[in-house]
Specification:
CATH topology of the largest domain: Aminoglycoside 3'-phosphotransferase, Chain: A, domain 2
Mean pLDDT: 86
Number of helices: 13
Low-confidence stretches: 1-20
Shape: globular
Number of domains: 2
Helix content: 40-55%
CATH architecture of the largest domain: Alpha-Beta Complex
Length: about 375
Amino acid sequence: MPIEKFGGENGESLEGEESVRPSEKLKGFRKKLWEKTRTIFSRIGIEKVGGTSLEAEEDIVSKIGEIRNKNEDDKFLDLEISKDGENLGLRTVAQIDSKYNPDRVKNYNEWDLTPQEEAERWLNREILVGEKLDKFTIGESVSADELVDANRDPKQGEIFLLKRTKEQAGQQDEYGESEGRALAKSLLDMQKNLRATEMVREIMTEEGIENKLEMEQKIFEDYFDHFDGYMDNSKVILEELDDEDLAGRIEKRMEEFRVVIEEVQLGEDEYSFVHGNVNFDTVRYPEDGRAYLSDWQRAGKTQNKALSLVYDLGNALQEAIEKLESAKAKAFILGVESELKFQYQDNRKLGLAIINLAKLRSFSMIVNDLEDDKKTLALSGLGE
Protein backbone atom coordinates (compact mmCIF):
# COMPACT_ATOMS: atom_id res chain seq x y z
CA MET A 1 0.00 0.00 0.00
CA PRO A 2 1.30 3.50 -0.74
CA ILE A 3 2.57 5.59 2.14
CA GLU A 4 0.77 8.80 3.03
CA LYS A 5 2.79 11.60 4.65
CA PHE A 6 1.10 14.36 6.55
CA GLY A 7 2.03 17.43 8.55
CA GLY A 8 3.99 20.45 7.38
CA GLU A 9 7.61 20.57 6.31
CA ASN A 10 9.79 18.20 8.34
CA GLY A 11 6.64 16.78 9.92
CA GLU A 12 5.71 20.04 11.67
CA SER A 13 2.04 20.69 12.39
CA LEU A 14 0.20 23.23 10.27
CA GLU A 15 -1.34 26.06 12.24
CA GLY A 16 -3.71 28.94 11.66
CA GLU A 17 -6.02 27.46 9.03
CA GLU A 18 -9.75 27.30 9.33
CA SER A 19 -10.80 24.23 11.29
CA VAL A 20 -13.03 22.11 9.09
CA ARG A 21 -13.34 18.41 9.84
CA PRO A 22 -14.20 16.27 6.82
CA SER A 23 -14.45 13.33 9.21
CA GLU A 24 -17.57 14.89 10.71
CA LYS A 25 -19.31 14.51 7.34
CA LEU A 26 -18.25 10.92 6.73
CA LYS A 27 -20.54 7.99 7.34
CA GLY A 28 -19.94 4.31 8.07
CA PHE A 29 -16.62 2.78 7.25
CA ARG A 30 -14.54 5.89 6.66
CA LYS A 31 -15.82 7.75 9.67
CA LYS A 32 -15.20 4.82 12.02
CA LEU A 33 -11.71 4.25 10.66
CA TRP A 34 -10.86 7.93 10.89
CA GLU A 35 -12.02 8.02 14.52
CA LYS A 36 -9.98 4.89 15.26
CA THR A 37 -6.89 6.48 13.73
CA ARG A 38 -7.29 9.67 15.76
CA THR A 39 -7.58 7.56 18.93
CA ILE A 40 -4.24 5.93 18.10
CA PHE A 41 -2.63 9.30 17.41
CA SER A 42 -3.70 10.44 20.85
CA ARG A 43 -2.38 7.28 22.52
CA ILE A 44 1.09 7.64 21.01
CA GLY A 45 1.28 11.31 21.92
CA ILE A 46 0.39 13.02 18.66
CA GLU A 47 -2.26 15.60 19.37
CA LYS A 48 -2.26 17.18 15.94
CA VAL A 49 -1.89 15.61 12.53
CA GLY A 50 -1.67 18.36 9.99
CA GLY A 51 -2.97 20.76 12.64
CA THR A 52 -6.17 22.34 11.34
CA SER A 53 -5.25 21.81 7.70
CA LEU A 54 -8.30 20.80 5.69
CA GLU A 55 -6.04 19.56 2.91
CA ALA A 56 -4.09 17.26 5.25
CA GLU A 57 -7.26 15.74 6.64
CA GLU A 58 -8.72 15.27 3.18
CA ASP A 59 -5.57 13.39 2.16
CA ILE A 60 -6.10 10.99 5.06
CA VAL A 61 -9.78 10.64 4.29
CA SER A 62 -8.95 9.83 0.65
CA LYS A 63 -6.45 7.19 1.75
CA ILE A 64 -8.98 5.60 4.10
CA GLY A 65 -11.55 5.55 1.32
CA GLU A 66 -9.36 3.19 -0.72
CA ILE A 67 -9.40 0.46 1.94
CA ARG A 68 -12.20 -1.97 1.23
CA ASN A 69 -10.62 -5.39 1.77
CA LYS A 70 -10.13 -5.76 -1.98
CA ASN A 71 -7.20 -7.99 -1.18
CA GLU A 72 -5.22 -9.11 1.84
CA ASP A 73 -3.08 -5.97 2.02
CA ASP A 74 -6.18 -3.80 2.29
CA LYS A 75 -6.82 -5.13 5.79
CA PHE A 76 -4.47 -2.42 7.09
CA LEU A 77 -4.03 1.32 7.10
CA ASP A 78 -0.32 2.14 6.69
CA LEU A 79 0.73 5.71 7.42
CA GLU A 80 4.04 7.53 7.71
CA ILE A 81 4.01 9.95 10.61
CA SER A 82 6.46 12.22 12.38
CA LYS A 83 6.95 11.99 16.14
CA ASP A 84 9.61 13.92 18.03
CA GLY A 85 11.24 14.83 14.72
CA GLU A 86 11.57 11.19 13.61
CA ASN A 87 9.75 9.55 10.72
CA LEU A 88 7.95 6.38 11.79
CA GLY A 89 5.61 3.86 10.21
CA LEU A 90 2.17 3.36 11.72
CA ARG A 91 0.01 0.35 10.88
CA THR A 92 -3.47 -0.31 12.19
CA VAL A 93 -6.36 -2.63 11.34
CA ALA A 94 -8.54 -1.14 8.61
CA GLN A 95 -11.38 -3.62 8.86
CA ILE A 96 -14.62 -2.31 10.27
CA ASP A 97 -17.19 -4.85 11.48
CA SER A 98 -20.25 -3.39 13.19
CA LYS A 99 -20.93 -6.76 14.87
CA TYR A 100 -17.35 -7.21 16.07
CA ASN A 101 -16.98 -8.16 19.73
CA PRO A 102 -13.44 -8.52 21.14
CA ASP A 103 -14.82 -10.45 24.13
CA ARG A 104 -16.60 -13.17 22.16
CA VAL A 105 -15.55 -16.77 22.72
CA LYS A 106 -14.08 -18.15 19.49
CA ASN A 107 -14.42 -21.77 18.41
CA TYR A 108 -10.90 -22.96 17.69
CA ASN A 109 -12.13 -26.35 16.54
CA GLU A 110 -13.20 -24.68 13.30
CA TRP A 111 -12.19 -21.56 11.44
CA ASP A 112 -14.76 -19.01 12.56
CA LEU A 113 -12.74 -15.79 12.54
CA THR A 114 -14.46 -12.69 11.19
CA PRO A 115 -12.61 -10.46 8.67
CA GLN A 116 -11.65 -8.01 11.40
CA GLU A 117 -10.43 -10.81 13.66
CA GLU A 118 -8.27 -12.15 10.83
CA ALA A 119 -6.80 -8.68 10.31
CA GLU A 120 -6.12 -8.43 14.03
CA ARG A 121 -4.45 -11.85 13.88
CA TRP A 122 -2.07 -10.60 11.16
CA LEU A 123 -1.17 -7.44 13.04
CA ASN A 124 -0.87 -9.29 16.35
CA ARG A 125 1.58 -11.66 14.68
CA GLU A 126 3.73 -8.86 13.26
CA ILE A 127 3.97 -7.17 16.67
CA LEU A 128 4.64 -10.45 18.47
CA VAL A 129 7.50 -11.42 16.14
CA GLY A 130 8.98 -7.96 16.58
CA GLU A 131 8.89 -8.43 20.34
CA LYS A 132 10.51 -11.87 20.23
CA LEU A 133 13.19 -11.67 17.51
CA ASP A 134 15.91 -9.98 19.54
CA LYS A 135 15.30 -12.28 22.50
CA PHE A 136 15.62 -15.49 20.50
CA THR A 137 18.15 -14.50 17.85
CA ILE A 138 21.82 -15.22 18.40
CA GLY A 139 23.94 -12.29 17.26
CA GLU A 140 22.50 -9.50 15.13
CA SER A 141 18.75 -9.29 14.68
CA VAL A 142 17.32 -10.59 11.42
CA SER A 143 14.73 -7.83 11.46
CA ALA A 144 14.88 -4.46 9.73
CA ASP A 145 12.20 -3.09 12.01
CA GLU A 146 12.48 -1.67 15.50
CA LEU A 147 9.31 -1.69 17.55
CA VAL A 148 8.63 1.75 19.01
CA ASP A 149 5.12 1.29 20.42
CA ALA A 150 2.30 -1.17 19.89
CA ASN A 151 -0.94 -2.60 21.18
CA ARG A 152 -1.98 -6.08 20.12
CA ASP A 153 -4.85 -6.63 22.54
CA PRO A 154 -8.22 -5.29 21.34
CA LYS A 155 -9.44 -5.29 24.92
CA GLN A 156 -6.82 -2.64 25.69
CA GLY A 157 -7.91 -0.27 22.92
CA GLU A 158 -7.25 0.08 19.20
CA ILE A 159 -4.63 -2.33 17.83
CA PHE A 160 -1.65 -0.62 16.20
CA LEU A 161 2.05 -0.97 15.43
CA LEU A 162 4.51 1.92 15.41
CA LYS A 163 7.99 1.08 14.12
CA ARG A 164 11.26 2.34 12.71
CA THR A 165 12.38 0.74 9.46
CA LYS A 166 15.87 0.63 7.95
CA GLU A 167 16.11 2.75 4.84
CA GLN A 168 16.07 0.95 1.50
CA ALA A 169 19.34 1.62 -0.33
CA GLY A 170 19.49 1.76 -4.11
CA GLN A 171 16.83 1.22 -6.73
CA GLN A 172 15.14 -2.14 -7.23
CA ASP A 173 15.88 -2.16 -10.95
CA GLU A 174 19.60 -2.19 -10.05
CA TYR A 175 19.39 -5.39 -8.03
CA GLY A 176 21.62 -8.19 -9.19
CA GLU A 177 23.91 -10.96 -8.01
CA SER A 178 25.12 -9.28 -4.80
CA GLU A 179 21.55 -8.66 -3.61
CA GLY A 180 20.64 -12.27 -4.36
CA ARG A 181 23.58 -13.50 -2.32
CA ALA A 182 22.82 -11.15 0.57
CA LEU A 183 19.19 -12.23 0.75
CA ALA A 184 20.03 -15.94 0.63
CA LYS A 185 22.58 -15.43 3.40
CA SER A 186 20.05 -13.59 5.59
CA LEU A 187 17.49 -16.37 5.22
CA LEU A 188 20.13 -19.00 5.97
CA ASP A 189 21.30 -17.00 8.99
CA MET A 190 17.73 -16.87 10.27
CA GLN A 191 17.54 -20.65 10.18
CA LYS A 192 20.86 -20.98 11.98
CA ASN A 193 20.60 -18.17 14.50
CA LEU A 194 16.90 -17.94 15.39
CA ARG A 195 15.97 -20.31 18.21
CA ALA A 196 12.56 -20.90 16.66
CA THR A 197 11.57 -23.88 18.80
CA GLU A 198 12.10 -21.96 22.04
CA MET A 199 10.33 -18.91 20.63
CA VAL A 200 7.26 -20.85 19.48
CA ARG A 201 7.03 -22.76 22.76
CA GLU A 202 7.17 -19.54 24.77
CA ILE A 203 4.45 -17.98 22.63
CA MET A 204 2.25 -21.06 23.05
CA THR A 205 2.66 -20.88 26.83
CA GLU A 206 1.98 -17.16 27.02
CA GLU A 207 -1.08 -17.36 24.78
CA GLY A 208 -2.49 -20.51 26.36
CA ILE A 209 -2.31 -22.38 23.05
CA GLU A 210 -2.66 -26.13 23.28
CA ASN A 211 -2.98 -27.43 19.72
CA LYS A 212 -1.86 -26.79 16.16
CA LEU A 213 -5.17 -25.44 14.86
CA GLU A 214 -5.51 -22.97 17.72
CA MET A 215 -1.91 -21.83 17.14
CA GLU A 216 -2.69 -21.15 13.48
CA GLN A 217 -5.93 -19.29 14.21
CA LYS A 218 -4.45 -17.21 17.02
CA ILE A 219 -0.94 -16.49 15.76
CA PHE A 220 1.08 -18.16 13.02
CA GLU A 221 0.55 -19.33 9.49
CA ASP A 222 1.19 -23.05 9.11
CA TYR A 223 3.54 -23.66 6.21
CA PHE A 224 4.95 -26.93 4.84
CA ASP A 225 5.60 -29.11 7.88
CA HIS A 226 6.92 -31.94 5.73
CA PHE A 227 7.54 -32.86 2.10
CA ASP A 228 3.99 -34.14 1.60
CA GLY A 229 2.73 -30.67 2.54
CA TYR A 230 5.01 -29.11 -0.08
CA MET A 231 3.75 -31.57 -2.70
CA ASP A 232 0.08 -31.05 -1.84
CA ASN A 233 0.51 -27.29 -2.22
CA SER A 234 2.50 -27.65 -5.43
CA LYS A 235 -0.04 -29.97 -7.05
CA VAL A 236 -2.70 -27.27 -6.67
CA ILE A 237 -0.37 -24.86 -8.49
CA LEU A 238 0.46 -27.38 -11.21
CA GLU A 239 -3.23 -27.92 -11.97
CA GLU A 240 -3.34 -24.34 -13.23
CA LEU A 241 -0.59 -24.82 -15.83
CA ASP A 242 -1.61 -24.54 -19.47
CA ASP A 243 0.58 -27.53 -20.38
CA GLU A 244 -0.44 -30.79 -18.67
CA ASP A 245 2.68 -32.61 -19.88
CA LEU A 246 4.87 -29.88 -18.36
CA ALA A 247 2.97 -30.17 -15.09
CA GLY A 248 3.63 -33.91 -15.01
CA ARG A 249 7.35 -33.44 -15.64
CA ILE A 250 7.61 -30.80 -12.91
CA GLU A 251 5.84 -33.02 -10.39
CA LYS A 252 8.25 -35.85 -11.22
CA ARG A 253 11.25 -33.52 -10.70
CA MET A 254 9.88 -32.42 -7.34
CA GLU A 255 9.61 -36.01 -6.17
CA GLU A 256 13.30 -36.57 -6.94
CA PHE A 257 14.16 -34.50 -3.86
CA ARG A 258 11.83 -36.21 -1.39
CA VAL A 259 14.43 -38.38 0.34
CA VAL A 260 16.97 -35.62 0.96
CA ILE A 261 14.28 -33.31 2.42
CA GLU A 262 12.79 -36.01 4.62
CA GLU A 263 16.27 -36.79 5.98
CA VAL A 264 16.35 -33.36 7.68
CA GLN A 265 12.82 -33.48 9.10
CA LEU A 266 12.54 -31.97 12.60
CA GLY A 267 10.82 -33.72 15.49
CA GLU A 268 7.18 -33.17 16.37
CA ASP A 269 8.06 -30.69 19.12
CA GLU A 270 10.68 -28.79 17.07
CA TYR A 271 10.07 -25.79 14.85
CA SER A 272 11.61 -23.76 12.08
CA PHE A 273 10.46 -20.30 11.02
CA VAL A 274 9.24 -18.80 7.75
CA HIS A 275 9.08 -15.09 6.92
CA GLY A 276 6.22 -15.82 4.54
CA ASN A 277 6.32 -12.67 2.41
CA VAL A 278 9.85 -12.17 1.07
CA ASN A 279 9.73 -9.60 -1.73
CA PHE A 280 11.47 -6.41 -2.80
CA ASP A 281 9.29 -4.32 -0.49
CA THR A 282 9.87 -6.40 2.64
CA VAL A 283 13.65 -6.85 2.31
CA ARG A 284 15.94 -3.89 2.98
CA TYR A 285 19.43 -3.45 1.52
CA PRO A 286 21.27 -0.75 3.51
CA GLU A 287 24.82 0.28 2.75
CA ASP A 288 26.46 -2.46 4.84
CA GLY A 289 25.93 -5.07 2.13
CA ARG A 290 23.45 -7.11 4.14
CA ALA A 291 19.80 -7.87 3.52
CA TYR A 292 17.39 -7.24 6.39
CA LEU A 293 13.95 -8.82 6.66
CA SER A 294 11.00 -6.68 7.66
CA ASP A 295 7.19 -6.89 7.78
CA TRP A 296 6.41 -10.14 9.58
CA GLN A 297 2.62 -10.14 9.17
CA ARG A 298 2.65 -13.44 7.24
CA ALA A 299 5.27 -15.16 9.41
CA GLY A 300 4.75 -18.80 10.24
CA LYS A 301 6.30 -22.02 11.43
CA THR A 302 7.29 -25.33 9.89
CA GLN A 303 8.97 -28.52 11.08
CA ASN A 304 11.55 -28.60 8.31
CA LYS A 305 14.24 -25.92 7.96
CA ALA A 306 14.92 -26.83 4.34
CA LEU A 307 11.27 -26.26 3.42
CA SER A 308 11.37 -22.93 5.27
CA LEU A 309 14.08 -21.85 2.85
CA VAL A 310 12.23 -23.33 -0.12
CA TYR A 311 9.20 -21.17 0.61
CA ASP A 312 10.99 -17.88 1.30
CA LEU A 313 13.62 -18.22 -1.43
CA GLY A 314 10.90 -19.21 -3.90
CA ASN A 315 9.06 -15.96 -3.21
CA ALA A 316 12.26 -14.00 -3.83
CA LEU A 317 13.06 -15.80 -7.09
CA GLN A 318 9.54 -15.26 -8.36
CA GLU A 319 9.74 -11.58 -7.47
CA ALA A 320 13.02 -11.24 -9.38
CA ILE A 321 11.54 -12.56 -12.61
CA GLU A 322 8.41 -10.45 -12.26
CA LYS A 323 10.09 -7.18 -11.22
CA LEU A 324 13.54 -7.11 -12.83
CA GLU A 325 14.55 -7.03 -16.47
CA SER A 326 15.74 -10.45 -17.58
CA ALA A 327 19.51 -9.97 -17.28
CA LYS A 328 19.18 -8.56 -13.76
CA ALA A 329 16.75 -11.33 -12.77
CA LYS A 330 19.19 -13.94 -14.03
CA ALA A 331 22.01 -12.33 -12.03
CA PHE A 332 19.85 -12.17 -8.87
CA ILE A 333 18.95 -15.85 -9.21
CA LEU A 334 22.62 -16.69 -9.77
CA GLY A 335 23.49 -14.85 -6.56
CA VAL A 336 20.94 -16.88 -4.58
CA GLU A 337 22.25 -20.13 -6.06
CA SER A 338 25.88 -19.20 -5.41
CA GLU A 339 25.25 -18.48 -1.75
CA LEU A 340 23.32 -21.75 -1.33
CA LYS A 341 26.17 -23.71 -2.92
CA PHE A 342 28.70 -21.97 -0.67
CA GLN A 343 26.69 -22.53 2.52
CA TYR A 344 25.95 -26.17 1.70
CA GLN A 345 29.43 -27.25 0.66
CA ASP A 346 29.22 -30.10 3.17
CA ASN A 347 25.78 -31.22 1.99
CA ARG A 348 25.54 -30.45 -1.70
CA LYS A 349 22.48 -32.64 -2.20
CA LEU A 350 20.47 -30.64 0.33
CA GLY A 351 21.55 -27.29 -1.14
CA LEU A 352 20.60 -28.50 -4.61
CA ALA A 353 17.23 -29.75 -3.34
CA ILE A 354 16.40 -26.40 -1.71
CA ILE A 355 17.17 -24.26 -4.76
CA ASN A 356 15.42 -26.62 -7.18
CA LEU A 357 12.28 -27.03 -5.09
CA ALA A 358 12.11 -23.25 -4.66
CA LYS A 359 12.30 -22.75 -8.42
CA LEU A 360 9.92 -25.56 -9.32
CA ARG A 361 7.13 -24.27 -7.09
CA SER A 362 7.58 -20.52 -7.60
CA PHE A 363 8.17 -20.52 -11.36
CA SER A 364 5.19 -22.84 -11.89
CA MET A 365 3.02 -20.12 -10.37
CA ILE A 366 3.96 -17.50 -12.97
CA VAL A 367 5.11 -19.25 -16.15
CA ASN A 368 1.64 -19.10 -17.75
CA ASP A 369 1.75 -15.29 -17.66
CA LEU A 370 5.32 -14.73 -18.86
CA GLU A 371 6.51 -13.98 -22.37
CA ASP A 372 9.71 -13.99 -24.42
CA ASP A 373 13.02 -14.04 -22.49
CA LYS A 374 11.34 -14.03 -19.08
CA LYS A 375 9.36 -17.13 -20.00
CA THR A 376 12.57 -18.73 -21.25
CA LEU A 377 14.27 -17.92 -17.94
CA ALA A 378 11.41 -19.44 -15.93
CA LEU A 379 11.27 -22.55 -18.10
CA SER A 380 15.01 -23.08 -17.66
CA GLY A 381 14.45 -23.02 -13.89
CA LEU A 382 11.74 -25.63 -14.38
CA GLY A 383 14.20 -27.87 -16.19
CA GLU A 384 12.81 -27.20 -19.68
